Amino acid sequence: ETLELMLQRWSKLERDFRMKNGRYDISKIPDIYDCVKYDTQHNSSLGLEDTLELFRLSRALADIIIPQEYGITKAEKLDIASAYCLPLVKKIQLDLQRTHEDEAVNKLHPL
Prior knowledge:
Blueprint: H1 3-17, H2 29-42, H3 51-65, H4 74-108
Helix pairs in contact: 1-2, 2-3
């Protein structure tokens, strides 16, 4: 990654994190943590100041935010998981049915 790409990545993240109303979008904290972690591991040769401190602080925030990303209570987590997983499970079921039907047709008309 070039320094220019790194700057673009951080500029976009800053725009997304700091909202127009002056508040912050805390859902971006995991993204900040990921970027800091990436830069700590892959761009340490740049010798950026306070990177480890930024990593420590972003990890502390991420440790609080990430578990709550998909609901706080068990019921909320179940609702969110169902909303994500149900369409996928239905697609898998449909694909399996189609595969089973195709196999039945191929058995009747082998090549």
